[in-house]
């Protein structure tokens, strides 16, 4: 399956991207430490966002198959950049906080955690990016 994303440079390091299937748009801006204004997500922020939302989506898919209500489950992704050997993402530390009482069975927790680590974004990250995923059960 393919999805078309079209992007237009707006000047001053800002870009508008349009999602082909839905027509939804988002704006990016370079971060202040790289010459931008930092007024929106940077492209690498979107990688972090993609990872977090992918993890939650995969958890939701597994939960739906097992009639689990995962509403209120949250994810936090901390992105760290490096300049060595070139400017790139060094790490994406992900912490999933599972809503209280939604998963009490140890076997189901293992299943959800394994599925989250197999999300397509996590699987697509370069091997040099440190990308641990931690789970906290409220």
Give an account of the 3D structure:
This protein has 138 residues and is α+β, with helices and mostly antiparallel strands. A hairpin with a 5-residue loop joins strand 2 and strand 3 (25-29). A three-stranded antiparallel sheet has the order 1-2-3, with no helix packed on it. Strands 4-5-6 form a three-stranded mixed sheet, covered by helices on one side. The chain contains three helices and six strands, in the order E-E-E-H-E-E-H-H-E.
Residues in helices, as a percent range? 25-40%
Radius of gyration: 17 Å
- How many helix segments? 3
- Structural class assignment: alpha+beta
Strand content: 25-35%
Uncertain stretches of 5 or more adjacent residues: none
SSE ordering: EEEHEEHHE
The largest pleated sheet is described as: 3 strands, antiparallel
Shape category: globular
| Span between termini | 37 Å
Strand order of the largest sheet: 1-2-3
How many strands appear in the DSSP assignment?
6
Mean pLDDT: 96
């Amino acid at each position: 399956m393919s999805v078309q994303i079209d992007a237009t440079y707006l000047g001053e390091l800002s870009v508008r991207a349009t999602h082909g299937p839905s027509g939804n748009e988002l704006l990016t801006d370079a971060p202040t430490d790289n010459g931008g204004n930092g007024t929106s997500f940077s492209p690498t922020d979107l990688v972090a966002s993609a990872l977090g939302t992918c993890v939650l989506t995969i958890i939701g898919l597994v939960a739906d198959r097992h009639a689990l209500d995962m509403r209120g489950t949250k994810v936090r992704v901390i992105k760290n950049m490096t300049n060595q050997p070139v400017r790139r993402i060094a790490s994406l530390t992900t912490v999933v906080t599972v809503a209280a009482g939604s998963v009490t069975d140890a076997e189901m927790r293992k299943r959800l955690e394994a599925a989250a680590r197999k999300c397509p974004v996590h699987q697509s990250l370069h091997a040099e990016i440190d990308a641990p995923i931690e789970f906290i059960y409220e």
